[in-house]
Description:
disordered N terminus; globular; 6-stranded antiparallel sheet; mainly beta; 6 helices; 3 domains
Amino acid sequence: MKKVLALLMIIAMMPVAAVSQSKFAVDPAKYDFSGVFEADSPFNLGILGKEYKRLQIYYESVTRQSSTNYIVKGYSNAAGNVCPFEGTLKIVSITVQDSEDFEADHNVYFLEASYSFKETGGTGTGTFSGKAGFDFWISDNKPMIEDGMFGADGYCNSQYEGFWTSDKTKVKKIANWGSCRIPGSGDLDQGVGEFVPDEKYRAKGWADYFNAIFSQNEEVQVNANFREQSKWWDKKAPVLVYKKAPKPVINVYKKNGQAQGALIQTLSLKVSETPEYWDFNQDGYNEIVQLCDDGKLYVWSPKDGKFYNVPSYDFVKYKGYLTYKPQLKRYFTTNYDPDTQAHYFYMYSYRLSNDRSMDAIVFEGSISEKDGIWSEYDKYGQTVHSKVNSPEKLSQIWSDYIRLTMAQY
């Protein structure tokens, strides 16, 4: 008992700064964590109330105010009711995680934060408050969200758990959201490896999410996916409607609130391969893209309020295997030739222009691999490296690509 009392006296006599610092395995004063907080936005998986009404959250900006405090501005969407909000997110503690749990070769940390976001407009406003948790690591002196296990069964991150309190009635409702999973979502989440909403909650704002995954009707599925991928917080974002027959087209409409307004244009598709809607060229706006050999690519021009076709997309080889590597700012496709028994990789860059009708996809070069032997070619087909026994002997960008994709090394 005397030892316990002595220890308590020592702790009580310790400087406040020393006690406080023990909560941080990483000093928050040394790093800007806004990138960690923004990494998984928009959050399209969330719940409001015991009936699990769908809640979506988007961060327009996260700004560092002090070593532990951040100002957050954004929008909430409760089953179609969009409201702007503003508030604070405060770092409470940072602890070390077991890197083996993440199959990581770097230190992984857990950041706990408290938050309070007040809705400042819209219908039926209130305040979100609670605690949030983030797994992160530090790369090149910059905190990064830990997503090395993204796609693995049960992966989740950026977990927010708290309440929404009505300004008018002061009634509190559960309000949770997160990346890939929702904390405290009960029987709403019927998925094993990934989030899958129970069909009985479809009327609570989950119909499009459900149809985008499970609908057997192609038009229903594509249009649900368009709405799922749309920038619901952006009043100028278009509304897309896909029609498969008598020929595949996409009608583009202005947005009227969250609904369909006036027709802007009609886009023709050469083939009926399912069109997708995502930020293909990383310019902050969604593009319409078909990942198939005869597929089309249409880019959105916010200045003109319309889509433009990108003709050079026609010359991209093996579009069905196209991927984007943000670390390299390049696009890659791949193909295996059974006749030569070799793998081929093709690299492209995207050239943005002020006039979006002049955007272009540029071929940058290729590599081949057979039985662990590699060759590299430039954009003109001329040999750069011939028959080397390691991708490390290729140009740096190709060596990095192989390492990133965990291909044969």
